[in-house]
Design a protein that fits this description.
285 residues; alpha/beta; Beta-Lactamase; Rossmann fold
């Protein structure tokens, strides 16, 4: 049975960022404040989840074709929000994660513990660090993406820049302000991250944001280096890892990295710290 209408209706009734999971032989669960809460009494079968996934995918433009073993897509519903769906298989059955975000990007003042400090640091980065790489890291990748878009929204409103965004899938739709915003969803607007990075050189944006990415391959690193060398300020959103592993994963980007933005949750807000860590010191360790 297709339970997409009931699930989307539930998520649409919640005004905040919400995350739910669908797994075989379990009820639909919402993750809230580190706990799983059942929000429907039905126990899902493998067929229920497949039917629901097919229905969810029908909302996403350009997402026709076989499901495959894993994948992700996103779509928006008027007055409800934007939905990011990620799925994978376990023993032949699908497991689904659905994250709903409001259409409106939260402001830095709404999201951060010390907004005046955060705004001051962001202004300095945007004003002074062209041709540099800035790393965004947080233990909660959903909150990290939310902060990244709050940062980009602030830049769009207060600076005159060309902002180029590559993400799989898109978490928010960012509005033009004094800046021009170009958003491309990997898998929909462009086939791969590498292709999207190559296209960036045709535009030569002032700012490039690469959405949450577990790791980069050598070719992607090479494209990012070319973009940095052209003078673009690059923000990358990656998993929360140690400084040593960060230096190893970033490879050739190490010499361009000037700031690490660390995010920690403090009750209802995010505590943000900006660290001037010279990762190049770790290259030979």
């Amino acid at each position: 049975m297709n339970y997409a209408p009931q699930i989307l209706n539930y998520l649409g009734s919640v005004s905040t960022v919400s995350e739910v999971f669908l797994a075989p032989n379990a009820s639909p669960m919402e993750r809230k404040e580190g706990k799983l809460i059942r929000f429907m009494s039905v126990v899902l079968t493998s067929e229920d989840i497949r039917d629901t996934l097919v229905a969810l995918k029908s909302y996403a433009s350009g997402s026709l074709g076989p499901l495959g073993k894993e994948g992700s897509f996103s779509f928006g519903i008027h007055k409800s929000g934007r939905f990011r769906v990620t799925y994978m298989t376990q023993r032949g059955s699908y497991v689904i994660s659905i994250v709903k975000t409001p259409f409106e990007v939260p402001t830095i003042e709404e999201l951060c513990q010390d907004p005046s400090y955060v705004i001051k640091e962001i202004n300095q980065i945007v004003g002074n660090l062209s041709g540099s790489c800035v790393v965004i890291m947080g233990k909660d990748h959903i909150k990290a993406s939310m902060f990244a878009y709050s940062l980009l929204q602030h830049v769009s409103i207060n600076f005159s820049k060309v902002i180029y965004i590559l993400e799989e899938p898109l978490n928010y739709l960012l509005k033009h302000g004094n800046s021009l915003v170009i958003q491309r969803e990997i898998g929909t607007d462009v086939e791969t991250l590498q292709e999207g990075l190559g296209d960036a050189m045709l535009i030569k944006p002032n700012i490039l944001y690469i959405g949450y990415t577990e790791s980069f391959n050598e070719r992607e690193i090479g494209e990012i280096v070319r973009i940095l060398e052209s003078g673009t300020l690059v923000f990358v959103n990656i998993p929360y890892i140690s400084q040593q592993k960060l230096a190893y994963d970033l490879k050739a980007l190490v010499s361009f990295t000037e700031r690490i933005i660390m995010l920690e949750e403090e009750k209802e807000v995010i505590k943000v710290s900006f660290r001037e860590i010279q990762l190049r010191e770790w290259e030979n360790r």
